[in-house]
Specification:
The complex is a heterodimer of chains A (499) and B (271). Chain A is mainly β. Chain A has 5 helices and 19 strands. In chain A, a hairpin with a 7-residue loop joins β15 and β16. In chain A, α1 runs antiparallel to α2, α1 packs parallel to α3 and α2 runs antiparallel to α3. Chain A is globular, with a radius of gyration of 27 Å. The two termini of chain A are 46 Å apart. The N terminus of chain A is likely disordered. With 271 residues, chain B is an alpha/beta fold. Classes of the chains: A mainly beta (499), B alpha/beta (271). At the A-B interface, α2 and α3 of A face α5 and β4 of B.
Chain lengths: 499, 271
């Protein structure tokens, strides 16, 4: 009777599950056979049924290569309504001789985005990731409904799928993670410097070590971090979440370095002399252009100190420097209308993002801020022909947030003030929404979000900005094709599904 | 009149074919089972069932399972379990892969009898067959480049050994693939640096010796107790419950008479 009961239990368990359950049941069957509760033949017949079930279910039809030890399918779909408007200067000061002063250029767009990815771990401490995205843009994954200029209504001309991420790496050394490819941003950043849609290409090295301290007794215990399990869910090299009991105090020290291939020069050695700067580039016209690849190097070292009750402080000083010019960014940046908006000359940016967080009445709150100084900002201003505006070499932001967006019925409100000087930042990397990819802008931004369900969120974003220096253009190429962008406003309403 | 003879001849021919088919058993699949065990079982069965004929093709477990899916054999011999993809393919054709364990086997790791090495660990076996270790000195031997002999990819033993001993990793790129157990035993017997694996029925071949694995040797007792790490069941696969002559032969195989032969050939009886 006992045998029969156990065998029936095994059968029920085995038949009741998926492929993973089948594997578990296999071990259970082995145990039952070993204990002589069922025969090998009986176990085999149950196994056969399990395999048959697996083979005829959708999960069982997926076949993964042997080195894959874990695989996750993830992604999101977002619907967005967006209003975006920019105003030309309102008077003759700093209007660069343009017509239609005080006029607004406005766009209303309905958009969607799709991102779908696979990431996983491989045998022997390797990992990999792949993400496909709509839009070929480096700073956006959006597609505008009805955005095609040909092909009739509902044409698919701009609904392409592109490789957003393709990377792999190694976590075999304690505390270290090495990544190569087109990867999720491994650095701790904010939208002031980096649009979060950017997936940099190159190499990254990360080290993180966690120390825990008993406030009462002193002494420390080292805890390993970037193990296989330490690879964060969203693929980013963020620092660990709040300390868990029983630790009283936790200190995360981290170093992130990256070598990004910013722009490939082709060819590095042309037939004949190097190319020269074309007309329309001021005193640079006719100058020979160096033919070298452009690399961006990032050096970040920081700490996060977590106290009891989820109070934490994090600071991540970072230095960004550029080597070479590439073939797309080799003209000196100016930022004024009808001049170069993308040059990467004289950029050596020291950036300090910082954050303080705590919980009050079980509600997460935080204050965040960032200060960035382009150490070579003076040279950048002078090269742009503005030696009298060399003070435009710094940027900063300060804001606060309350709430979080993790589970159903969660909500969050975030607001901040941002100031970005004309020669402070790389305009090719700054956020494309808040201030329309521009520098020489200051203003406020507010975001509010609500989780309708665990996978569905509603988000509203509003930002308004003003030109900082009225005698300079607003450097960078945004969606609003006017320069200077004397005033700017954006409103976005999003509904997102995450899976 | 001519028409009558023709009709009679045709009727006799049809009756003859039908009769021959009724007493003919087509068995395909595993070389491990089909090279020795099943032919001997067939001989004994024929002695008890005069007029029965067997068509046995031992070209690897994969071919046996494929034969059940295609309906070209009544019994598929296999030294491994049917894969999910094979079971799925069978289902899509309305077939149900029914396994019947006919014997247990231990896959013995063999080296040349002149090899001074006394035993291996599971880790060392994995390293040897994946090519991580290429010289005998790395596993306690006296030195010399290891020659790895494996079965070919249609063999159930090939995939069983990969799963049991190699964590499903790939074989060493320089490994040499052999058609059957006897060929592996013969090659290892000739090559002082050779290493391979064979079913228990082939461990008595000349010039080779079986390695204890983590101290456990492949014996009837250790395989039956499932304590030898590379033990495995061997199967007859049929389309659903066997019937007719196939059922009689399956019943004979798992019955006392058949299991005696199983033991005589060198496999381990199921009871």
């Amino acid at each position: 009777m006992k045998k029969l009961t156990l065998a029936a239990a095994a059968l029920c368990l085995a038949l009741g599950g998926t492929v993973a359950r089948a594997q578990d049941a296999g071990a259970l069957l082995d145990l039952l056979v070993k204990k002589k509760l069922i025969s090998d033949q009986e176990a085999e017949e149950v196994r056969g049924e399990l395999v048959k079930e697996a083979a005829t279910t959708s999960a069982g039809k997926w076949k993964l290569s042997t080195p894959i030890t874990e695989l996750e399918l993830y992604g999101d779909v977002r619907l967005r309504y967006e209003y975006r408007g920019g105003r030309l200067p309102s008077n003759n000061s700093g209007d660069f001789g343009q017509d239609h002063l005080n006029d607004w250029y406005e766009r209303h767009r309905e958009r969607y985005r799709l991102r779908v990815g696979l990431r996983g771990t491989l045998a022997d401490d390797w990992f990999f990731g792949l993400r496909l995205e709509t839009s070929a843009s480096n700073r956006s994954t959006n597609v505008t409904f009805g955005g095609e200029s040909s092909g009739g209504p509902f044409a698919k001309g701009d609904d392409g799928i592109f490789v957003g991420q393709a990377y792999f790496g190694y976590t075999g050394f304690p505390d270290f993670k090495f990544t190569g490819g087109r990867m999720p941003q491994p650095l701790i950043t904010t939208s002031m410097l980096w649009d979060d849609d950017i997936n940099p290409e190159g190499l990254a090295q990360q080290w993180k070590h966690t120390f825990t301290f008993d406030i009462g007794g002193g002494g420390g215990e080292a805890v390993q971090s970037y193990s296989k399990g330490g690879y964060s869910k969203d693929g980013k090299g963020v620092v660990a979440a709040a300390a868990s009991e029983p630790f009283k105090l936790k200190l995360d020290l981290f170093v992130n370095t990256a070598q990004y291939v910013y722009d490939d020069e082709n060819p590095e050695n042309p037939i004949g002399p190097n190319p020269t700067v074309g007309s329309g580039n001021g005193n640079q016209t006719g100058q020979q252009i160096p033919t070298t690849d452009a690399f961006m190097l990032a050096w970040q070292a920081g700490a996060r100190l977590t106290f009891p009750n989820s109070v934490y402080i994090q600071v991540a000083p970072t230095l960004y420097n550029y080597t070479g010019n590439g073939d797309s960014f080799n003209i000196h940046y100016v930022g004024d209308p009808n001049t170069n908006q993308i040059g990467i000359n004289s950029l050596l940016v020291f950036d300090v993002p910082a954050e303080i967080g705590w919980k009050l009445w079980d509600m997460p709150m935080r204050i965040f801020g960032e200060f960035a100084d382009n150490i070579e900002g003076h040279d950048r201003a002078q090269a742009a022909g503005h030696p009298d505006h060399t003070g435009q070499h710094y940027a900063w932001m300060l804001g606060g947030a309350i709430g979080q967006l993790k589970a159903k019925h969660d909500w969050e409100i975030r607001a901040w003030y941002q100031y970005a000087g004309q020669f402070a930042l790389d305009p090719n990397l700054v956020d494309s929404d808040i201030f329309d990819s521009r520098v020489n802008e200051k203003g406020i931004a507010v975001k509010a979000g609500y989780m309708v369900a665990d996978a569905i969120s509603l988000n509203l974003t509003w930002a308004y900005s003003w030109r900082i220096n009225g005698s300079l253009g607003t450097g960078g190429n945004g969606d609003i094709p006017i320069n200077p962008l004397d005033q700017y406003q954006i409103f976005q309403a999003d509904c997102s599904v995450k899976f | 009149m001519k028409f009558k003879y023709l009709a009679l001849s045709l009727a006799l021919l049809v009756a003859g074919i039908a009769g021959a088919h009724a007493d003919r058993l087509v068995i395909k699949g595993s070389d491990t089972l089909g090279a020795k065990l099943v032919p001997q079982l067939a001989e004994q069965f024929k002695a008890q069932h005069p007029g029965t004929t067997f068509d046995i093709a031992a070209e690897g477990s994969t071919t046996g399972i494929a034969a059940i899916i295609d309906g070209t054999a009544q019994i598929g011999m296999s030294s491994r379990r049917a894969k999910t993809s094979e079971v799925g393919a069978a289902s899509s054709k309305g077939k149900h892969m029914k396994p019947t364990i006919v014997a247990f086997d231990g896959i013995g790791v063999i080296v040349n009898s002149a090899n001074p090495i006394k035993s291996l660990t599971k880790k060392q076996v994995e390293q040897i067959f994946t090519g991580e270790v290429t010289d005998w000195s790395a596993v306690g031997g006296s030195g010399g480049k290891i020659s790895v002999y494996t079965r070919n990819t249609s063999s159930g033993t090939y995939s069983d050994f990969k799963e049991l001993a190699m964590k499903k990793r790939d074989y060493a790129s320089g490994s040499q693939k052999m058609a059957g157990n006897e060929q592996i035993a013969a090659e290892v017997g000739k090559n002082p640096n050779g290493v391979g694996y064979v079913g228990m029925a082939y461990l008595k071949a000349g010039g080779i010796k079986a390695m204890p694995i983590d101290g456990s040797v492949p014996t009837a007792k250790s395989v039956q107790a499932h304590s030898y790490p590379y033990w495995r069941p061997t199967f007859y696969y049929t389309d659903g419950d066997p019937s007719g002559l196939a059922k009689e032969f399956v019943d004979f195989t798992v019955g006392p008479g058949g299991q005696r032969i199983v033991a005589q050939v060198g496999f381990v009886p199921i009871k």
